[in-house]
Amino acid sequence: MVSPSQPPAQRGPRWIGTLLYVPLLYGVGWLLVLPLAALGPDWGAPQRALPGTLAAFGLLLLTLPGRLRRVWGSIHPWHSLGLARPRAAAGRALLRGLLKALLLLLLVGGVLLASGHAQWRGSLGGAELLNALALVLGVGLAEELLFRGWLWGELALELGGGPRGDQRAMVGQALVFSLVHTRFNLGPLATVGLLAGLLLLGLALALQRRADGGALHGAIGLHGGLVGGWFLMQHGLLTIAADTPAWLQGPGGAFANPIGGLVGWLGLAGLLLVRRRWWPASAGTAR
Questions:
Q1: Statement to judge: residues 122 and 245 lie in one domain
Q2: Last residue of a domain, one of 50, 80, 110
Q3: Of 103, 121, 268, 285, which is most buried with the most CB atoms under 10 A?
Q4: CA–CA distance, 111 with 71 (Å, rounded to integer)
């Protein structure tokens, strides 16, 4: 899915640059918000986490085009990342991703309600809706740009380019995505469940991008829709019983992640089955 304009011998990332690029941006982002500590004790490390993350994301947006031109040999960086697409096509892809997220959440919520582990509350305020919208746009855009945009393309070049390199890179980005997001303090079974669910999600998001002809918008809608929609379910739509088993709603207790549970696995497996025609690398569209 990556098409450098120069031969691989002249262009291509190096492992050290790939490994250090994002951590360095994150570190610089945190350094930029350090002066906030002078505002008083109310601006400790936890309070600076969000501004630091936003600063790092801003640096990512500023530096990505130059990196893609220099390292990938990309003439149109935002197209290579899957963002620069016709408005109508991007909108349709975004809606398809949001619809899939809705269906997956309906499956999880329906099972919780049918099993008696949740009750319908249906109470939402403006603050909850705004928070959910911010999660849809913020988490969906930032993480898809990072994992299904930059990391997938970077790994494809690292692993030799071409269909085989792209295929290995698709699995690689899903593995990295899973490891980065897993909480390793949940116990062995819960951790394995969450790792597996996140791996399935990483693959499903990559296949969504392939199905959308390289556009990132469908993956943004699917990912952001799951995060924002689950927030609404937990903070207004449903009252979930505290004793709900982790295998059903996902591990994490009060901060449960549904894709780490059996229902989440089945939903994502079904999504992968529907998208199976896009698994071969040749089914993808060059970025």
A1: yes
A2: 80
A3: 268
A4: 47
281 CB-near residues (< 8 Å, 6+ apart) = 1, 163, 164, 166, 167, 170
pLDDT digits (tens, 9 = 90+) for 1-20: 544 343 343 456 688 989 99
pLDDT tier for residue 254 given thresholds of 50, 70 and 90:
confident
What's the whole-model pTM score? Answer: 0.91
Q: Say if residue 102 is in the same domain as residue 201.
A: yes
Give one word for 162, left, alpha or beta, with left for phi > 0 and alpha for psi -120 to 50: left
Is there a single domain that holds both residue 240 and residue 150? yes
Q: Provide the residue type at 274 as one letter.
A: V
Q: Which residues contact 166 (CB under 8 A, 6 or more apart)?
A: 1, 2, 156, 281, 284
- 93 and 205 inside one domain: yes
Tell me the pLDDT tens digit for each residue of 179-236.
999 988 888 989 999 999 999 999 999 999 999 999 999 999 999 999 999 999 999 8
Distance CA 25, CA 86 (A): 30
Residues 6+ apart with CB under 8 A from 18: 154, 155, 158
| Residue from 118, 115, 70, 61 nearest 240 by CA | 118
Bridge partners for 238 per DSSP:
120
Q: Which domain holds residue 25?
A: 1-80
Euclidean distance between CA atoms 171 and 219, whole angstroms: 16
